Amino acid sequence: MERLLQYVFDGLSLGSIYALLALGLVVVFRGTGHLNFAQGEMAMICTFFTWQFHAWGLPLVVSVLLGMVAGFVLGAGVEVSLIRRVAKKSEAGVFVVSIAMFLGFNSLAGMIWGNLPPEEMPSLFPDEPDDFVRIFGAVWRYEYIGIMIVALLLMGLLFLLFAKTKFGLAMRAVASNPESARLVGIPTGVVLAASWGIAAAMGALSGAMVGGLAGELTSLLMFTPFIYASASATLGGFDSPGGAVIAGLLIGVGEQLAAGYAPGWIGQELRLGVALVTIFVVLLFKPSGLFGSTKVERV
Amino acid sequence: MKRTSTRVFALAMASALTIAACGGDDEGSSSTEAPAASEAPSTEAPSTDAPSTEAPAAGWAVNTDDCVDPDAANAPIEGTIKIGSAMPLSGGPAATAFAPVKDGFEAYIQWANENKILGDLTIEVQIEDDQYNKDLTPGAVEKLLDADTNVFAGIIGTPNNTAVKDLLNEECYPQLNALTGSPSFGNAEEYPWTTGLLIPYTTEAKAYAALIADQFPAGAKVALFTVNNEFGQVYAEAFKEIAPEFNIELVDEQTIEATDAAPPTAQVNSIASNAPDAILAVPLGAGCATFLGEVANAKAANAGWNPAIFMTATCSSPLILGLAGPAADGIYTANNLVDILDPEVAAQPAVAEYIAFMEGLGKGDIITTAAAGWHTAEVTVLTLKAALESEAGLTRASIINAARAFNQATTFTRPGITLKMNGVDDQYMSESLQVIQYNATTKLFTDIGELITDFES
Amino acid sequence: MMKINHGSPQHWALRTLGVALIALIIVWVPTQMSTSRIGQFSDAFVLIIAAMSLNLVLGFTGQISIGHSAFFGIGGYTAAILIKDHGWSPGYTFYAAAALAFVVGCLIALPALRIKGIYLALVTLAVAVLFPTLVKWKKLAWLTDGAKGIDSVRYDELPVWPILGELKGRDGRAVFAYWLAFVLLVVTYLVCRGLVKSRFGRSLVAIRDNETAAAVMGVNLTVTKVLVFGVSAALCALAGVLSTLRTGVITPEGQYVTLLGSIVFLLIMVVGGAGTLWGPIVGGLVYVWLDNTTRGFGSESDGVGGFLFGWSDQSPATLILGLALVIIMFVAPYGLVGLIKRLWVKVVVVVPKPAGTSLPTTGQ
Predict the structure, then answer these.
(1) Is the model's pTM score more than 0.90?
(2) ipTM higher than 0.90?
(3) Residues of B numbered 188-207 whose beta carbons fall under 8 angstroms of chain C's beta carbons: which are they?
(4) pLDDT category, B53, cuts 50, 70, 90?
(5) Which chains touch B (3 or more CB pairs under 8 A)?
(6) Which domain holds residue A163?
(7) 3-state secondary structure at position C5
C-alpha cells in the first residue's frame, strides 16, 4: 500500500510538470494548428535565462517570473517573425522550422552557457532532505507538493483566461475560424503571437521546476520531458487543455507504476517506453485522444 | 522508357550488390574476436611483491611484421616528434568536464620543450575535438594521421578509444595512455599498440568489494546504480563478476539514462526499499551530485538506513562533489594520484612547479582537472624518453615497447605507487590505488586503509 | 540566355559535359585527395543515401517521418550482429539488413496508414526514440550488447576489385569504403529514379497532393504507402550498414541512430530540395562541408567565423545549420536544387520537342 501511494505521489508531481509543458503544446495547437516541436528547447533556454537572472543577484522567484516573461517574448517573437511567414507558404514548412528551432536553441544554450561548470539550480521550494511529509507511510516531499500546486494553479489561471476573459474568447474564436474572427475585428495576429507567448512562458515555468528538481542545468534538460509532454498531449487530445492535464497526470502515475511493479521488464530503462507506446496506441486507435475532437476534413 | 530504366537499375543493383558481397572474410570464421570486455583478460594474478624498481624485463617487443608498412613503424623519428589526440572540447557536458585536460596536456608539452626533456628533439602536439562522440573520433584520428602524427596519447573516452584501436593497431601507431578504465584496454596480444592509463574498472570494483567485505564480514547486501551507457555497463559487469568472491549479495540494480537530467528518485527509492548495506554508484559527471542528493532524501525518509556509498573515481573531483554539498560527506572513492588541493601536497616541489607554470599561463583556475592532462602528457613524454634512449632509438615500435616496460613514479602519483607495465604479464599501467573518503566540510579526502598494491601484476 | 533544343547535338554536348565533370570529380577524390578527405566524402555519401530514402517517403509521398534513424540503426545493428556473432561476410549483410528493414518498415506503415501530418510525425518520433531505448534494454542485451554497442565491425580482408588493385591499410580501407559508398549511392539513386518516374512514382505524388483525390482516381493507398515506406526503410538500412562498416562501431547513442539522426536527414533533404532527385545529394554535400568548416569555429579561428562565434568555446555547427534551414525555407522553399534550377534557367533553356512532330527543328 505504501509503495503504491509512493508511486502515485511521485507520479502526480512529475505528471504535473508534463501536464504544464503539454498545455503549452495544446495552446499553440488550438490557437494556430501547429505542433511546436521546439517547446522543450524553448523551455530549456528560458530556464537558463532564469538561472542567469538569479546568478546576477535577483531573488529566485523574481528570476523565475522574469524567465517567464522572457519566454513570452521569445515565443511571440518566433511566431511573428518566423512561423507566420512560413505558414503562408506551406504547412510542412512550419514543422521543419520548429525542428530547426529545436536544433538551434539547443545549440545556442550550449554555446552561451556551455563551458561553465554544471549550473547549480536552486529549487523554488524547500528541498533539504528533511523536507517531507508522511502520508500513510509514503513520503511526499515538499518540493513535489509545491510543484503540483504551482502547476495546478497555473492551469487554473489558464482555464480562467480561456473561459472568462475577452482575450480568451478571442483566442477561441481565432482557433475555431480565423477568417470570421478577422472579419469580426479580432486582431488575429496579436492573438496568434500571444498563444505562442503564453505557451513559451508555461514552458519556462516547467523548466524552472525541472531544473530545481534536478539541481543543475544542462542543455539536455527538457528533452525527455518534451517526449512525455507530447505523449500527454496525444493521449489527452491536442485541442483539449483539460485533456492534456488529465493525460499528463495519468502518464506520470502510469510510468511510475509500470516501472515500479515491473522492474525486470520495464524498470527505469523502459519508463520512457511507456510514454512512447502510449503515443503509438492512442494514435493508432483513437488519434483524437481521449478528450479531443475529431477533425472533419473537407474534401 | 520505363522498361529501359527498370532494366538499368535492376542490372546496376545486381552487379553492385554482387561486388559488395565479394568483400569480406572468405574463410567464414570471425577472426576478429571481440576483445573480452566482461571476461577478465589474462589473469591479474595478485602478486605479493611490493612494486619493484628493478630494470624492466627485456622480453616483450611488438611484432611489426603484420603492419601495413613495417618500415615506417621502425623508421627513426628525428627532429620533431608529433603527438596527436582527440578530446571533447565542445558539444556538451563532457566538454565542460574534460576540456581542461587539453590545457594541462599542452602545458606539460610546453614545459617539456622548455626544459629539453627529450634533448634536441622538439615535441609538437595537436589535439582534435571529437565532442565525446565516437563517430567523430575516427575522422579526427585520420586527420591527424594525414598530418604526420607519430604517436597518439590521451584520447578521452571508452567508446572513443574503442572506435580507433583497430585502425591504429593495423597501421601500427602507438595509442598510448587511453583515458579510459575499461578492462578491454589491457590486451597486449590482440591490441599490442594500445595501452590504457586509468585504473581499470575491474580493479576499482575489487578494491571496493574488498573494503565492503571487510566492513561486513558476514556478507553484505549491495545495490548498484549505474549510468546506462558503455562506461556504466562495463563497470556493472565487472562488479557483478567479482561480487560472489567477496560474499556480496546484489539486492538491486538501477540505471539512469545519460541524457536524463531529472533526479533518480524512483531508482533511489527502489534501492532504499531493499535497504542495502552499501551502494556502488557509477553516474556520469554532474549526475554524481544529483544521485547523492536523492540518497540524502531517502536516508531522511528511511530512518536507520545509512548505507556506505562507493562512487567511481571519475566522480572524485571536489568540483562535482561540491555540488552535492553535505550529501557528499563520507562517500568512498579511489585514486592513484595525489589531491593537489591539499596544501601539503601543493607544497611539494614538482607539484608547486606545476601550479606555478599553470598560473603563469593564466590557467590557475583549472589546475584540478588540467592535472590529469599534465599527468598523461608526462607519462607519454617519459615513455618517449625511454624509447629515445633505447637501443633502437626513437621509432614507433620502440615507443610502444618502452610503454610496455614502463616502471616509474611521476609527479602526481601517490607515494608508494609506481606506474608499471610489463609486456603480457602486466598489461595495465595503474593497478595500485588508494581508497579515500570525502569530507564535505573540509572538501578534502582522507586515506582509508593502506595503499592497495595487490593488483599489480 | 541560350536556347537549345531537346535532342539536338548541343544538348548532347551539354549532357556529356555534365557527366564528364561529375565523373572527373568522382575519380579525382579517391586518387588525389588525402585519406581523411576521402573519408569525409564517404560519410557524405552515407548521409545522402539516408536522405534519399527519406525523400521517397517525405519529399515525394508527403508522409512526415522523423523515424528513419531507427531504420539506419536496424541496418547498422543487423550488420554488426551478423558479422561479429555469426561470422558473416560483410557483403551479404547488406541484403539481410535491407530485407529486415523492409519488413519492419512495412509493419510500421501498416497501422500508420490512417494517420496524417503531425500525428504521423509523432508516431515516427516515438519509433525514433524507442529504437535506442530498446537496444539498451536489458532483456535484449544478449543480442545488442546493451549500451556498450558492438565494435570491431569491419572487413577482415578487403576484397580485390577490378582496376583498384590490392588495397592495404587505412588508405586502402578509405578508398574501398569510398567506392562502396559511391556504388550504393548510384544504386539508391537509380532505385529512386526508377520508382519516381514510373507509374508508382506518379501515384506517390498524387498521394502527396491530395490523398482523397488519389484514392478516388484508383490509387491503392494501402499498398502504395506500405511499399514506399518499406523501400525507404530498406535503403536507409543500407546507409546504416555502410556507416557501421566505415567506422567499425555501432552504439545506441551513435550519431545517426538517435532522433537527432532523423532530424539531420530531414535537414539535408529540405535544404537540398525535397521532392527532387538531386536534392539530397546537394544537401548532403553542403551539410558535410558546412559541418567540417564550422567545427573549427569558436575561440580558435580568425576571420568572419571567429568574429561571429569567437565568444563561445562551443562549435556553432548546429546553430548555423538551424539558421541555414530557416533561411532556406524563406528564400528557396524548393531547396538549393530549386534555386539552382531557377538560376540555371537564366543561362540555358532546353526547349522540349513539340509534341507530335517527328522532325527535330534545328537550333540557331
Answers:
(1) no
(2) no
(3) none
(4) very low
(5) A, C
(6) 2-285
(7) strand
